[in-house]
Amino acid sequence: MSYLTEKSGPNYLPDNFDIPDNYNILQISEIHAFEEFTEEQSQAYSREVADQVNNYVETYNIDEIHVMGDTGTFDDVYNFLDQLNPGTEVIIVAGDEDKKDANPPPGEKSDDFTGFYTQINSRQPFDVDIDYQIFDEGFEKQIAGNRVQASHHQRNSKREDTLNSPDTRPDSVLENLFSVEKYTNENTAECLIYSPETNNKAANTNADQGDPELLEDDVIESPPSLRGLDMVVYDHLHMPYPRTVGNTIVLGLGGRKNNHDPGSSKLPSESIHISSFEDGRVHHMHFDAGEDQIFEHQVFQQSDRDVEMFDVEIPEEINPDSGYLPVQERIRREKVPEKAHEIGDDLPEKWTPELEH
């Protein structure tokens, strides 16, 4: 495969795909501007990250920017938004760090800083020249014909029971969000076979075991919380992990600052992601944000019945450490059950131009 440029970073443009012509979403999370030592450093860091995002927006013709939580204080979010170039819609999700309070009511424990979401009383609190929306915890929307849910936390037990003001959506939004474990993949999903006519559980068995009582058109359904979803996205864990579960694309995002518990030194310590949507196909590109260098690129081929993930080979001269890593090399092995380990046929095939047809 040849490339339009041999430079690393946001100039990665494989010529087999017209990425800038797709509907493109940049996903960034865990900016953690509150970890800088002074207000001046927090401001400089927030604006520096925004400048980096501007470069990706220009290179890939980004249509939306999703800031998926744990950004920082009111000033941190303002500085980030104020530095962005106008013209691209921004969605901001409030994570747990964004709801901290350094001056809580009497009797409650105080935090080291106050997150932006605790400081606002409307969903349009920032006087900036860009269009933005703010959501507590997560949201659902249609993107290029795909039903997509995005949440700060990956499972319900980590989320609060109610949405916090100024988010006025019903609490049922939380009830309807997906829920997965950090290691959930095809090996651990415990997919069930359902009858498409009744939607009742027909068997609790693996597809390859079969069941003589099942109809030929019975389909493999993903776990209940993923059913009917084309893609789910989460962060919070600082553990980048793209995969498929049933018919759903599942993207665990890395953090812009400090990815946790890597199982391999190859995994970037800082991440930015792009999801690129075209007809019947979704791309996931994961960049090492510290080096502005592509780390991995997957293609998800969609059909009426399933979705299949392929890994796009990145030339060594661009990044010799690039490519898909199995879950046990993304997350420390002791934190991943052996059943979830990906080996052999569990790993995605390499993308080839012949798969275009």
Described by strand count, sense and barrel closure, the largest sheet is:
9 strands, mixed
SS class:
alpha/beta
State the strand order across the main sheet. 4-3-2-1-13-14-15-16-17
Uncertain residue ranges: 1-6, 194-220
The average pLDDT score comes to: 89
Report the total helices.
5
Helical fraction equals: 10-25%
Characteristic key phrases:
357 residues; alpha/beta; nine-stranded mixed β-sheet; five-stranded mixed β-sheet; 17 strands
What is the secondary structure topology, with strand pairs?
Layout: E1 23-28, H1 39-60, E2 64-67, H2 74-83, E3 89-94, H3 116-119, E4 132-136, E5 138-143, E6 146-151, H4 172-175, E7 192-194, E8 201-203, E9 219-221, E10 231-234, E11 241-245, E12 248-252, E13 271-278, E14 281-288, E15 293-302, E16 307-311, H5 327-330, E17 349-350
Parallel strand pairs: 1-2, 2-3, 3-4, 6-10, 10-12, 16-17
Antiparallel strand pairs: 1-13, 5-6, 7-8, 7-9, 11-12, 13-14, 14-15, 15-16
Helix pairs in contact: 1-2
